[in-house]
Amino acid sequence: MKRRNILSFFVMFGPGLVVMFADTDAGSVITAAQSGAVWGYKLLLLQIILIPVVFMVQELAVRLGLVTGKGHGELIREHFGAGWAWLSVSTLIVACMGALVTEFAGVAGAGLLFGIPPWLSVGMAVLLLSIVAWTGSYLSVERIAILIGSFELVFLLVAWWARPSPAAMLSGLTQIPWRQPGYMYLVVANVGAVIMPWMVFYHQSAVVDKGQTVKDLGVSRRDTALGAIITQLIMIAILVATAATIGRYHPGEPLDTVQQIADALTPFLGETVGTVLFALGMVGASLVAAIVVSLATAWGLGEVSGYQRSLEHQPRKAPWFYLIYTAMLITGGVMVVSGINLVNLSVAVQVMNAALLPIVLGFLYLLALKALPKPYRLHGGYAMVVGGVVAITSILGIYAAVSSLF
After folding, report:
1. What ranges make up the beta strands (E) of 232-284?
2. CA-to-CA distance for 15 and 22, rounded, in angstroms?
3. How high is the pLDDT of residue 343?
4. Which long-range CB contacts under 8 A does 388-391 form with residues at least 24 apart?
5. Which of 127, 223, 306, 317 has a CA positioned 20 to 30 A from the CA of residue 388?
6. Nearest 5°: phi and psi at 24?
7. CA-CA distance, 314 to 136, in Å (whole number)?
8. What's the rounded Cα separation, in Å, for the pair 43 and 236?
9. Which residues contact 348 (CB under 8 A, 6 or more apart)?
């Protein structure tokens, strides 16, 4: 019996791990690196606190998908009407496009570390990710995404290699300069880097496309919990690595690009080791996020428009699904290599994410209260806790967007 349970877990696990690997994308890597460089270990406690928070949000998406057998956009259309569903998915598309630009910028930045021009590195990434989806099934895409995302684990090695001081880490856990505006802004940025709207769409649709049902709820929750721990361990590793190196010897040094992070760490880790490890981690983070974001868009749009949407269908049976997935990749890649002002675009994306986060999390919470049968519905004290998390996260997201504008 025990062996059967273990086998069942390894067969059914995956959606939670994939979406959590994607959570630690290029933007999240830069946010964590900036946190360690500027504030040392003083944002370490926040990364630990965010483990149950991100699990709480994604568990609702899993629960809704497994119990109803429907994606997020489809449930919104069913319970709140087509207008609200189209609003939610329309903002999702724009936010996902902005996220894709960030991911391909990460790929281009990693390529430049080795002298590879952006058009070549980004073009190869778009081609690879297109082939993965067009020639595979859901399970093969999921396993490839996990393999790609596992390259992020090299950040754990980087943190160990940086030789952080245990005493300094413990001290940082107790020092919370919450009255400092710069500190609070990075608190908000880290929250936004961990909880992203497209994660909800992807996760709920993924468990449905995989064919999981309510009997798999226990396994799926453990899969989500494992992913939440891993993604935050990666964020912690990046923060610790930069705090132990840049934060110690050059505190307050700004880090805004992949090249700056790699260049700042190479004096401490060695030029070859530092460059290779960060390139591997960044490419893994960017590519798995690009898969998740593109699939979230293709699934979400299909849920409100009604076209066939499954990786289990051949392209000829679900042409719109595959075309939209590929079109997202191509458009994001073209925007990166075209020389568009990525700084201005990033500000616009933050504003859109701020508008999307309250919508997606609000609908997620309302659906958990309304769309689920009584045994699985949110109720009691836990419903109040989840409602508080949703409200606080939405407010912080709006605060981050307004702060970026002013």
Report:
1. none
2. 11
3. 47
4. 389/53, 389/56, 389/57, 390/57, 390/361, 390/362, 390/364, 390/365
5. 223
6. -90, 65
7. 9
8. 9
9. 98
Contact criterion met (CB below 8 Å) for 57 and 368: no
Domains (ranges, CATH) in the chain? Answer: 13-339 (1.20.1740.10)
| Count of all residues that appear for the chain in the document | 406
Tokens found for residue 303: 């849920």
Q: Cβ(273)–Cβ(81) under 8 Å?
A: no
Q: Distance between CA 213 and CA 22 in Å, rounded? A: 23
How far apart (Å, rounded) are the C-alpha atoms in residues 10 and 401? 39
CA-CA distance, 134 to 315, in Å (whole number)?
A: 7
365-406 residue pLDDT tens: 999 998 999 889 988 889 999 999 888 888 877 776 676 666
* DSSP-derived 3-state class of residue 311: coil
How far apart CA 95 and CA 91 sit, in angstroms, is 6
CB 111 within 8 A of CB 36: no
Residue with tokens 């990525």: 342
What token pair was written down for 6? 């273990």
Does 134 have pLDDT greater than 80?
yes
